[in-house]
Predict the 3D structure of the following.
Amino acid sequence: MQPFGNVMKHYSDEDLLTMFFEGENPNYAFNLIVRKYQEPVYWHIRRMVICHDDANDIMQDVFLKAWKALGSFRKESALFTWLYRIATNEALTFLKKKKKRYFLPINDVSKQLEETLEADVYYEGNEMEKKIQKAILKLPEKQRLVFNLRYFDEMKYEDMAEILGTSAGALKASYHHAVKKMEKYINP
Amino acid sequence: MKKDNKESIRKELEELKSSLDPSKDTGGFRVPDHFFDTLPGNISNRLSTESAKPAFVFPGLAFKRLIASIVSISLLVGILFSLFLMQRESLNGQADLDYDRQMQEFYSIQFDMDRSALYDFVLESGLTFEDILFELENGEFIHGEDVFDDMLLEEMFEQAIYYGIESNYLLSSLD
């Protein structure tokens, strides 16, 4: 797991939201939110779309949407799950558009993402890491999401449930299936 | 974000008899130098650009012109509403056709008993498992009990779990 940005990390979500809603400079408060969450959100998107340039574009869209919607944020969910939900939706929409644009069936999308991984100048995984990434790309999209959130982001099932709108039990089962499939791909 | 205990994630993998080890696996991705230093600034610039786009400003109208505008807008809204009602009828018809097409596709995949195609289709079609079960309950799709072999059932249970459908409900639907 890549480290979180340590800049401004000491602000709690509560502090940041209070600054945004009640402070004199919401732009500044939003900038602090971006600094606090940019890394985990970026890595979450990057693992889904693989290419750095695509992840960068999606990141900007995510925070633009967050900026527009933050005014109506009701604090019913945690700030980070709310941001992850926007990021997940944006990443899935991107992949859907990619499929439509190139008329790709699901298997070819994973093949294309594999090619992207091979060609990405910002990928430097060792042989085993590359093998694992390729195995992850063979999973169905939603299982891939669950696997990444648990394995790399070390996320609790309860938080995942809030992001993906599914029960924690179902996500646990999905993760276990994904791990078993991964095992078959890695150690056939 | 409170992370889960690394140890519990490792133990979970151990219980699944998996050779995966997150502590030895960073994923292998990297970013250009100083990417995270410049990203907040890039996002701020993008926000400024978006905010600077000229918003539509309703022109100031004199009273008579305002009345005339209100009347015109009301007429326009009336016409658009009528068009909307007419179009909604045709959209409902289209939605029914789309649903039928998806179900037909599901059946054709089902006949071939292709497990992975079925799996992909259920994930990609946007049909909920309830949709499929509803069709199963009607009995039109079942061509003898042997159609449901163990592999297919296993796949369906996997999907049912994924969609959070109780297995009892699934079983009762297959009875």
Remarks:
- Residues 1-102 of chain A form a domain with the Rna Polymerase Sigma Factor; Chain: A fold (CATH 1.10.1740.10).
